[in-house]
Design brief:
133 residues, alpha+beta, Structural Genomics Hypothetical 15.5 Kd Protein In mrcA-pckA Intergenic Region, Chain A, 5-stranded antiparallel sheet, two-stranded antiparallel ribbon, elongated
Length: 133
Amino acid sequence: MQHEGVIEPVRVDRWLWAARFVKTRAGAVEAITAGHVELAGRAIKASRLVVPGDQLKITIGHQRFEVVVLATAARRGSASDAALLYQETASSRAERERQAELRRLAAPPGADLGRRPTKRDRRLMDQARHPSR
C-alpha cells in the first residue's frame, strides 16, 4: 500500500501486471525472462525493483512501448488506475502509430497467392511433393 510522500519500490513483474501490460504475473515473468523488458537499455530480472522515474522498454507482441514509471502499485486496479502508473514517451507513441498504419496498409497474408487452388491444382501439388505415389 502506498502512502503519500512515500515511494515504495515494487518488483517489475508485479508492476507490469498492475499496469496491465500483461494479463498474469506469470506472463510478466515470461516476458522479462525472454528479454522483452529493459530498464535503462539493459535486460533485467523479474525481481528487479522499480521506482518512479525509471524508464522501461516493453515489447508485447508487435508493439514496443517506452514508458516512464510515474507511480508504483502492488495490486492490479482498473484500467484507468493502471494508466496513471506510467507515461509513454512521445517518440514511442509516434512509432507505435506508424507501425499500426503500416500493418493496416499491408496486404493480408496470402493475398499474393491469387485464387484458391482447384482440385486439379491440389493433385498436381501432391504429385510434386510425393512423386512416388
